[in-house]
Design a protein that fits this description.
Blueprint: H1 2-8, H2 43-55, H3 65-71, H4 74-77
């Protein structure tokens, strides 16, 4: 898989600049997603889950069960991305 990505995605771009990175890192699927390890048809979804877990790890983006039970789906809209 790494060689396929290296040969097809990391070839020199026409729009390459000094600000674009040319590195691609591979990580293992986290232990909490163990049941999804063999789901190759869901790789983009798994990638989005992992990126969102890293990017949105701030508690201000979380909705607790208590908040959801009190406000319902409207509790999701109370979280603002500033």
């Amino acid at each position: 898989m790494q060689s396929i990505i290296k040969n097809s995605l990391l070839v020199q771009s026409e729009h390459f600049s000094e600000f674009q990175t040319r590195e691609c890192k591979f990580y293992q699927v986290p232990d909490y997603l163990y049941g999804w390890r063999r789901a190759s048809n869901m790789t983009s979804f798994l990638g989005a889950i992992i990126v969102s877990k890293v990017a949105l790890n701030d508690p201000k983006y979380h909705t607790s069960k208590v908040d959801y039970n009190e406000l319902g789906p409207a509790s999701i809209h109370s979280k603002q991305f500033n």
